[in-house]
Amino acid sequence: MSTQVLQEFFVTVTRKLGKPLDFDQAFEATRDLAALPTVLIDSDMVLTAIELSELHQLSPWDALILEAARRAGCAALLSEDLQDGFRIDGLQVENPFRDLLGSK
Fold first, then answer.
1. Is 70 in contact with 91 (CB distance < 8 Å)?
2. Which of 43, 33, 25, 27 has its CA nearest to residue 3?
3. Which one of 8, 26, 28, 64 has the fewest beta carbons within 10 angstroms of its own beta carbon?
4. Confidence of residue 98 (pLDDT cuts 50, 70, 90)
């Protein structure tokens, strides 16, 4: 789990859902996720992500999530935003909604 993902989760569940969670529900859910091992973003990670974004034509934000997962030693990164099946340094992006969307 990266600190960026924690922030994005909170914003998504409080602002982007058809029926958003209230502050207390969202805070508790975010606190539960924060109990997982967390990768702290530092300046070196940001610079590496910027290079990845240029190399692979990704947004800097998506590249930062990829880099955090890579540094954490993850084999898979669940994301509906990134290309399903994208691989980098042993890390594979998987869309958890792939079967619901009828892709791949």
1. yes
2. 33
3. 28
4. confident
Q: Helices marked H in 1-104 — which ranges? A: 3-11, 23-34, 43-56, 60-71, 98-101
**Which of 62, 40, 38, 39 shows the shortest CA–CA distance to 50?**
62
Query: Strand 87-88 relative to strand 76-78: parallel, antiparallel, unpaired?
Result: unpaired
Answer whether 16's CB lies under 8 Å from 73's CB: no
Tell me the CA distances in angstroms from 14 to 9, 29, 40, 80, one per residue in order.
9, 11, 23, 18
Q: What phi and psi values does residue 87 have, to the nearest 5 degrees?
A: -125, 145
Angle (deg, nearest 10), helices 60-71 and 3-11: 130
pLDDT digits over 44-88, tens only?
A: 999 999 999 999 999 999 999 999 999 999 999 998 888 899 999
